[in-house]
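Researcher: Last one for today. Full complex below.
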Amino acid sequence: MSHPPIDLAALDLGELEAALEARGVERFHARQLYRWIYKRGVTDIDRMTDLSRTLRETLKSQVIISTPQIVGDDRSVDGTRKLVLELADARRIEAVFIPDTPSMTFCISTQVGCAMACGFCLTGRMGLVRHLTAGEIAGQVRVLAAATGMLDHPFNIVLMGMGEPLHNYDNTMKALRMLHAEHGLAVSPRRVTLSTVGIVPGLERLAREPLMPNLAISLHATTDEQRTALVPPNRKYPLAEILAVCRRFPLKRRSRITFEYVMLAGVNDTPEDARRLAKLLTGIKSKVNLIPLNPAPGIPYERPSDERVDRFAQILADRHLTVSVRKSRGRDIRAACGQLIVEGGTRRSAAQTMALLMK
Ligand code: SF4
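Model: Here's the assembly. Have a good evening.
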């Protein structure tokens, strides 16, 4: 019986073993294939020289290895690189390489667009176009690692690109398992940070995952009224519920939950906000990452002054919170937080087109 071609890039190691076995190929070849695809960045079966010629011919007629294609590669003066990647259906996403942060970091997307509609985020303006598959999420890391010469070096991954990872839970977690596989890139979950607006059922599932990434909560506000205006999912999952899950979230020794706080001038940057924030985080092993807004046309907020950011940070530090102020990277190439939006996609949704017109 003939099988349709299978996409090796979409399979975790166990699935790949099973798929090979179903085609009469020995399971151990899955590990070899994983090494080629993930560790060496090779997707051309003819170059997989430790496979017999016969096996290569068999595979060539039965499998594909779909890989996002680089169609844009912008380099910032600070070394940040923003790749525009085209998927098999011609949708486009962005993935960012941020060097020296202090280690090397890949910021990847989990969806085309995003349904969360955060008020300060260009991606949110696109609406959700579709979820990424696990293969497309992991594929961004393969492409970034190969393009930046990092295949043999340790790197961090942050799920902070386009999309809300917990809104695409199963594919995101499967991608992390694929990236963790020891015959592939063997990325430790300690090197991965999942950033979420706080989808409570997703957080509860995450708390039970055997392979648990670091957790970052995009908080951005200290009252429900303020947060619902900035992060609309707060209407369904208010602050108290999110923080309650955080309080009981199983953390390894020495690890903490990061709370991200985009600072918007005159909106959420007052000393009262800082004091309320410190109070909200009482009892949670946390650190706070302040992100002064990267302003963009179409986003109705301004960046606060450095003095205002410093004062806010000082109030938190005085209350014994660990606080950092994120240095903006890649602003000249629109690779900074909340600035990821695909330009020039061949099939745009109405929301994408609108967002592009507003740029
Ligand atoms: S900030 Fe994140 S969750 Fe909010 S709209 Fe943008 S991509 Fe989505």
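The longest strand covers residues 69-75. Residues 114, 116-118, 121, 123-124, 162-164, 197, 338 surround iron/sulfur cluster (CB under 6 Å).
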